[in-house]
Write a structure and sequence with these properties.
about 230 residues, 5-stranded parallel β-sheet, alpha/beta, single chain
């Protein structure tokens, strides 16, 4: 079972979530501050991070950004409320998913499995490397390069790009992308998709005002098609 780093300042949540995941076979290390969690990143080398947004000192958004400077490990945010602003800011910082507390261990485990499946459940494609303008997409190697420079994409960003580019010019609704990439409907929550697209455009060097690779189809969703 994957190693999980839990960064949560509430002792009851930290102990409850940690105990529940350990019973399911995960190796879990826990920290009660952002600084403590960052210190554990190198030594523990987690395969997934559960990150509370409301932390003392360095908050969860700052921790997420710090992690993304050196690692593309999957990050699931834990938020005590479904506040739109908090969730969007966390997703923009590089988180792959979010869970509103309190949440049962079964729900957390399901989200962990869904996030970790993303890299192993990428859409099929022809062997070799595909070229789309300045982009080189290697589906077998799960890498993307722009002008010869490899891009560091988080799991959700990579899966979204692979899915869109596998069917150029096809329009996908936000709901279709939610169900494919995140494996949950989220009752129509498009924030995950929109935030992921914004992060992906930034990494692709795709200006939001006139994107070249990921086109917005107003009222419908997104499509891939280099201009």
């Amino acid at each position: 079972m994957p190693r999980v780093l839990l960064i949560e300042d509430d002792p009851s949540v930290r102990e409850g979530v940690g105990l529940g995941l350990r019973r399911r076979g995960h190796e879990v290390r826990a920290a009660d501050t952002g600084e403590g969690g960052l210190a554990l990143m190198g030594a523990f080398r987690p395969e997934l991070v559960l990150l509370d947004l409301m932390l003392p000192g360095i908050n969860g958004v700052q921790v997420c950004r710090r992690i993304r400077e050196t690692s593309q490990v999957p990050i699931i945010m834990l938020t005590a409320r479904g506040d739109d602003f908090d969730i969007v800011v966390g997703l923009e910082a590089g988180a792959d998913d979010y869970i509103v507390k309190p949440a049962r261990t079964e729900v957390i485990e399901a989200r962990i499995k869904a996030v970790l499946r993303r890299l192993g459940d990428t859409p099929g494609g022809r062997p070799g490397v595909e070229f789309h303008a300045e982009l080189a997409i290697d589906r077998a190697g799960l890498t993307v390069a722009r002008n010869g420079e490899r891009l560091a994409l988080a799991p959700s960003e990579l899966k979204l790009l692979l899915h869109l580019s596998a069917s150029p010019e096809q329009v996908f609704s936000r709901q279709q992308l939610l169900e494919y990439v995140w494996e949950h409907s989220y009752h129509g929550d498009a924030r995950l998709v929109d935030a992921c697209v914004r992060r992906l455009r930034h990494k692709l060097g795709d200006p939001a005002a006139a994107p070249r690779y990921i086109q917005t189809v107003r009222g419908f969703g997104y499509r891939f098609g280099p201009l």
